[in-house]
Design a protein that fits this description.
The chain is an all-alpha fold and about 100 residues long. It folds into two domains: about 1-65; about 65-98. It contains three helices and no strands. Helix 1 (about 5-20) packs antiparallel against helix 2 (about 25-60). The longest helix has about 35 residues, at about 25-60. The termini are far apart.
Length: about 100
């Protein structure tokens, strides 16, 4: 099965071949421009989708086990301790231990 961008590439080539036979045909030129534009839009959409999937996968890896107790961005030990205590208290509120 052809991908969408290769379908547009084939259309562009067909219109180029048609222009060789009819170089002054405005309709062919218009269709060629449209096929090129749509092909570029599809390439951009495919690239955006790929980047989106990569970001989603990174996010899943980072937060697979929940936000955790990442306190590496806090400078003082008091702030680190406070954040850990806050996170633990939040857990106990929603997930009380028996």
């Amino acid at each position: 099965m052809l991908t969408t961008s290769s379908t547009y590439d084939a259309a562009v080539e067909s219109f180029k071949n048609a222009l060789v036979l009819e170089p002054n045909d405005a309709g062919i030129k218009k269709e060629l421009a449209a096929a090129r534009k749509k092909g570029k839009q599809k390439e951009i959409a495919e690239a955006e989708k790929e980047v989106s999937n990569q970001i989603r996968n990174l996010y899943k890896k980072e937060y697979a086990n929940g936000p955790g107790y990442n306190v590496s961005n806090l400078k003082s030990n008091i702030m680190k301790k406070s954040k850990i205590e806050f996170l633990k208290s939040d857990e106990e509120e929603y997930f009380p231990e028996d």
